[in-house]
Write a sequence for this structure.
């Protein structure tokens, strides 16, 4: 496993530069990329036992968010927050206020286009302000939501999920939860068949579960949707049954999962073999667990992933570092340490390691990945209780962009006077401070929405010239230039000169033009970047300058 390595000075510089802009959480990826998470106030309210659900209801290309919960004076609310350029504002759409009364992996609302008109409709469950268990389906009519008539069993503290179980081309609805309030609550599971927008409750063999997750999934690859139902069944206790769909009827698949509630069950192909695996955890018949089951041709095998067992937990798959495989975010309560935890596990060729990224530690909540700002990487919406306070935070992801090349570590052209940097450091040649210049980038290299920022670190507090080239010098090996290596070749455009502070600088910053504008870039261009900087003192050759590693970026529309 290859990790990003810098000299101590380079690490300090990188952190100092980024921290000067904002508070961040940092995680090194297996590919050497740098993922940074900015903790931001989402502008949306948090409520105990609420629900947070992203979805682009207005089809403007920005992902909006539904938030359900209980506000001041115990008034239930259901509010859709519209995403306008990455900022979330109340859409003003009137919806019945519902308080889900259950979080963890259970999701009390679901987006889905049940009427085939191209926009997302909505199903919701929860208690009204008066405490009445309610199930409601809304049809999205051009951004207005109209309640669908029908007879629906009202529930709360459960889950809802859309899925075309009968293969007729429209989405059916599965609902679980409690039908009555109080200590003697009655559980119910309902399967509503969708017949051209009319919903009918149909017989099924499922447990009457609540406070547990459900999920439609074609786990056996036969083209029909199977379903996993978890939770507490008043008759049989904890359950976690995988039901195989055989032509619209369901039989127990015999997956032998431990019964579970107060937890999560999320599917994703973490090993890239074409079938979906299961991240599963919570309060179970096997104790508090967090397990990863690999799907081997329809057989679920616990791989002993080594993830921390958590209670009142939630989880989500997402490729946060854009390396092509699914990583896992898990939140919950550690009953051993008696503290909440939020852990981002990085997928390193099928093994999961704690990325080290720092988030609010929460439980009794939910986590969701989505690209809130349309910059090409997944941001994290984190909801829960951090041991006393209910919070809803948006962590913006700035995953490093581009492919580094031309290193001063002796792997290519040797540095001019034996001043090679540490092997595998991914940086330039050593400079007069005993550090080595390092160039990375964050943001979206899009000519239409350029947010790319070049980040130079590991340099003296001197002037630094950021420049763009057309190609890689000497096939990416570089050639000796001053005290370092010239990496970016071809016709050069000077982007801008900066004065390093704390060993580094950024371009663009302040009133600088974007890189796409200054570099005259168009979609499809492959460009190389590098930083030329002054040494702090005479060093190595008679020259008084050095360079970072090179970085290659491909521009898109």
């Amino acid at each position: 496993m290859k990790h990003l390595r810098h000299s101590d000075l380079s690490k300090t510089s990188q952190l100092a530069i980024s921290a000067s802009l904002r508070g961040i959480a940092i995680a090194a990826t297996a590919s050497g990329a740098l993922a940074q998470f900015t903790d931001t106030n989402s502008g949306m309210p948090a409520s105990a036992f609420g629900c947070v659900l992203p979805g682009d209801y207005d089809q403007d290309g920005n992902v909006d968010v539904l938030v359900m919960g209980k506000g001041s004076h115990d008034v239930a609310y259901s509010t859709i927050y519209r995403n306008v350029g990455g900022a979330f504002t109340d859409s003003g759409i009137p919806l019945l206020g519902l308080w889900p009364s259950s979080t963890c992996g259970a999701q009390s609302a679901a987006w889905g286009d049940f009427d085939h008109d191209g926009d997302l409709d909505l199903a919701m469950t929860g208690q009204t302000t008066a405490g009445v268990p309610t199930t409601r389906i809304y049809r999205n009519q051009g951004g207005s939501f109209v309640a669908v008539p029908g007879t629906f069993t009202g529930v709360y503290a459960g889950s809802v999920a859309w899925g075309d179980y009968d293969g007729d081309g429209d989405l059916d609805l599965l609902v679980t939860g409690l039908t009555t309030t109080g200590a003697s609550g009655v559980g119910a599971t309902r399967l509503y068949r969708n017949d051209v927008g009319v919903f009918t409750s149909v017989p099924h063999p499922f447990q009457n579960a609540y406070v547990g997750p459900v999920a439609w999934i074609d786990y056996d690859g036969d083209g029909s949707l199977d379903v996993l139902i978890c939770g507490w069944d008043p008759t049989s206790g904890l359950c976690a049954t995988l039901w195989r769909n055989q032509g619209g009827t369901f039989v127990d698949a015999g997956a032998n999962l431990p019964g579970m509630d107060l937890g999560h069950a999320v599917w994703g192909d973490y090993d890239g073999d074409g079938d979906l695996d299961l991240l599963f955890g919570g309060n179970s018949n096997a104790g508090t667990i967090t397990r990863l089951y690999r799907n081997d041709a329809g057989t679920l095998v616990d791989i002993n992933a080594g993830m921390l067992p958590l209670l009142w937990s939630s989880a989500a798959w997402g490729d946060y570092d854009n390396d092509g495989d699914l990583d896992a975010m898990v939140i919950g309560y550690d009953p051993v340490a008696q503290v909440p935890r939020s852990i981002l596990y990085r997928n390193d060729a099928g093994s999961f390691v704690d990325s080290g990224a720092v988030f609010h530690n929460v439980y009794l909540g939910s986590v969701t990945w989505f690209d809130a700002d349309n910059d090409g990487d997944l941001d994290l919406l984190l909801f829960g209780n951090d041991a006393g306070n209910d919070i809803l935070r948006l962590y913006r992801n700035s995953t490093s962009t581009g492919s580094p090349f031309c290193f001063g570590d002796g792997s290519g052209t040797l540095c001019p006077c034996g001043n090679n940097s540490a092997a595998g450091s991914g940086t330039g040649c050593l400079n007069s401070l005993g550090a080595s210049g390092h160039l990375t980038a964050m943001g979206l290299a899009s000519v239409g929405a350029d947010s790319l920022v070049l980040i130079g670190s590991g340099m003296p507090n001197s002037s630094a010239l950021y420049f763009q080239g057309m190609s890689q010098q000497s096939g990416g090996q570089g050639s000796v230039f001053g005290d370092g290596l010239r990496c970016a070749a071809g016709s050069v455009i000077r982007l801008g000169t900066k004065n390093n502070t704390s060993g580094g600088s950024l371009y663009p910053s302040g009133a600088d033009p974007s890189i796409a504008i200054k570099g005259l870039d168009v979609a499809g261009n492959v460009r190389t970047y590098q930083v030329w900087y002054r040494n702090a003192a005479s060093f190595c050759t008679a020259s008084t300058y050095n360079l970072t590693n090179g970085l290659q970026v491909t521009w898109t529309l």
Q: What stands out?
A: Residues 188 and 220 are 27 Å apart (CA to CA). The longest helix spans residues 8-21. Residues 1-34 have pLDDT under 50 and may be disordered. Helices lie at 8-21, 515-518.
